[in-house]
Specification:
The protein has about 190 residues and is mostly beta strands. Helices cover about 0% and strands about 40% of the residues. The strands form four sheets. It has a four-stranded antiparallel beta sheet, with no helix packed on it. A four-stranded antiparallel beta sheet has the order 7-8-9-10, with no helix packed on it. It has a three-stranded antiparallel beta sheet with strand order 11-12-13, with no helix packed on it.
Length: about 190
Amino acid sequence: PVAGALLRITRDGQAVHIVADGFRNPYDFDFSLSGQPYTFDSDNERCVGLPWYEGCRFYHVVPGRHYGWQAPQRASFWRLPPYFSDVVAPLAYLGRGSPTGVACYRHTQFPEHYRGGMFLLDWTFGRVYFVTLTRCGASYSAQKELFLESVGDNGFAPTAVVVHPRTGDLYLSIGGRGTRGAVYRIRYPQG
C-alpha cells in the first residue's frame, strides 16, 4: 500500500488484501447501512496557510482506488490533488482538525434524520459532526452539520464513538495527551 490504507485480513491471518490506499491518517472507519466503508482522513497540518492546503476529508472508500496521499519515500510532494482523474475526491471537507472516531447510526432511537448517517469526531477542536448520505451516481453526496461541540475550558477531546446496538444511545469517549478523560452517553429521550 501507498501511505494510509484500508486492509482486509483473512481470519487465519495468512493473507492481507489492500482494499484502498492513499490516505494520510484515517484513524477509524465504519460501514454504512448498505455495507459501504467510509472514513474520515486527517488534514496536512504542515501546509496550513499555503494555497494547496486541504482540510480533513470524509471519504466513501471505493475498493481498488487511491486517495491521493503519497508516502514521502515515494514522491517529492505528498498529496495529489483531488481533481486528478486517478484520485478519489472527498464527499465533504471539514476544515482543520484531527479526525478520530467514525460511526454509522444504525438504530431508530434518534429521529429519522439521523438514521443511516455518519457521526465523525474531531479531537483537536472538540467537535462531533453528523453527515447525511444521499445517493449520487456510483457514490454518494454528503451534507455535513455540527452535531455537538465543546464550550468552556474543561476540555472535550473526543477519541471514539459507538452506537449501542440495543438502546441506540451514542457513546463518546474523550481524553488523551493530558486532557480529561470520560465517557458520555447521548440519547434522544423521545426515541
